[in-house]
TrEMBL record:
InterPro entries in the record: CU044_5270-like
Transmembrane segments: 46-66
Keywords: Membrane, Transmembrane, Transmembrane helix
Source organism of the structure: Planotetraspora silvatica
Disordered, as annotated region: 289-311
Descriptive protein name: CU044_5270 family protein
Amino acid sequence: MDELHMLAELRRDTPPIRTGASGAARARLLEEMAAPRRSRLRLRPIILRAGVVAALASAIITAIAVPQDTGGDPGRPDAVAALAGAQPAVAAVAERARTAAEKQSTEKVPADSWTYVRTLQRETESHDLSDLRDWYTADGRWTAGIGNDGRVTVSEIDPKRDVPSAAFLLGAPTDPEGMARHVYAEVDRVIAAERTGGIRASTIDTSRGRDVAAFTLVKEALKRYYVTPRQQAALYGALAYIPGVTVIEDAEDAAGRHGQAFGIIDPQSVRSEIIFDRRTYRYLGSSSVFTKDYTEPPPPPGVDSDYDPDNPLHFAKGTVVELNAKMDAAVVDGPGQRP
């Protein structure tokens, strides 16, 4: 029994998806992948295996809108009271990162501060490398980017779409266990909000399970926002409390930098990786790769889909579906400013 049928059986009381929703979900994903990004500078092409974002492989499962077991009522304060025991290998790396962070000055980022992040990202279809420059306020209210005309455009963030927000880091605990509870509380908030329509789009795919969603939340926060060294060490420490997370001895980011990584494998056999410098423990980038051959299964009976039985999506083992590198991040004076 494949994952789709298993989930459908487990959640047989879930109302059927409306006609066309599955195809629409996949179309939206492809549209988002093809949409132009702000401040994009083309660099030389890089040699990488073809593939699309891992979410494409799981988009059909996501489209079914199957509720997930959150391990408790997300509305209760004690919903994340029970944590799995810390995994020694992950905790040991996080502890070394904490020691390195404590040698740096303590930094507080005011809520109204503008932060700058520069990321290299591998393009899905062209395999070119894009240079992305974005600005955010630490409270998650505003974002800015440079358009094709060279002008800086400031936009108010839609709290129903920009999840996770930079505000997730404001006042976040700096101890590993506290950060783990903070991460799971946010995941449970997202799950509850998705059920009620309070979130329309998120980079946290809750359809792949609560633990994978928690790992993804940490990965997205490190990738998208300015993170202080102590927050970074705490996020690493939180990973020790997520079942299934392992330490990978060698990984490469989009800039060609090698380091260690934390990884977790989802139900579609995609391993997500958080890559960091093995000496300084600074976050470098992230990647996702298929660990097994994967072929798109047919949808459950009664689910409308654009599934083509003669040409289902297929991803070979080793197909890279996400690759980026965080090149710079800092607190700046305002939108458009750089360190």
